[in-house]
């Protein structure tokens, strides 16, 4: 916990240097969504008060706003690979007579979710490729608006769709193309997303046998390879040579009304 680092300074009778206090303050504001996220604790609030005094920050709201805008501006320029892998964690499940395997869950936090969601046809093939390369059974990407405290879940396959609908049954809306699930005010992977998925799986959910299976491709070369732009100062990686047709409205076979051969 970030607030624990700040607390350690104080319990040892030491005041963090101004720049360190500022970094810790920004880290807590980012981690707790400006103290409005469901993971926020009283210690977070206390440390924000202490650190803002040490760092000489008079307007916490202004600092958080500037920080979130800067983060969102940077996200808009990232490649699909960076967006999918930047904040991704995997979770292993082993349920007797039930679902077994690893599920990946990525999160993008931004003040402009439309800018990210407008690139959904770029993100879908990258999600499929990443899932295949990492041998994940499923992979989700949640786009969280950190101002409105709302999120949408990108569903890159029929298994993701059926699990998400089973886990998030209330206050959700599925887009007509079956790719985006509006999760309402759920914003936290730790508090909202993973507990709901875990509960559903432990209660016996398994991948239905009759769902659409997406397009078949066992050869990883089908998904192309990553190349780093040598002229990019941040070493931006782009996927090249993918055979996934990104021009189609449904590039990965999300039409679950039809049975396919093999799920990606």
How does this structure look, described?
The protein is of the alpha+beta class. The protein folds into two domains: 2-58, no CATH class; 74-240, Diaminopimelate Epimerase, Chain A, domain 1 (Roll), CATH 3.10.310. 39% of the residues lie in helices and 17% in strands. It contains nine helices and eight strands. It has helices spanning 2-11, 18-31, 42-55, 60-76, 80-85, 113-117, 120-133, 158-167, 189-202, and strands at 88-94, 100-110, 138-145, 150-155, 173-174, 180-182, 225-228, 237-240. The strands form two sheets. Strands 1-2-3-4-6-5 form a six-stranded mixed beta sheet, sandwiched between helices. Helix 2 (18-31) packs antiparallel against helix 3. The relative contact order is 0.12.
Radius of gyration: 20 Å
What's the quaternary structure here?
Answer: single chain
Helix fraction, binned, reads: 25-40%
What CATH first level of the largest domain would be assigned?
Alpha Beta
Question: Quick one: how many beta strands?
Answer: 8
Helix-strand category: alpha+beta
CATH superfamily of the largest domain: DHHA2 domain
Q: Runs with pLDDT <50, length 5+?
A: 246-264
Query: How many angstroms does the end-to-end distance come to?
Result: 36 Å
Q: Could you name the CATH topology of the largest domain?
A: Diaminopimelate Epimerase, Chain A, domain 1
- N to C succession of SSEs: HHHHHEEHHEEHEEHEE
Q: Let me know the average pLDDT.
A: 84
State the CATH architecture of the largest domain: Roll
Biggest sheet character: 6 strands, mixed
Percent of residues in beta strands: 15-25%
Q: How would you sum up the global shape?
A: globular
How are the strands of the biggest sheet laid out side by side? 1-2-3-4-6-5
Total individual domains = 2
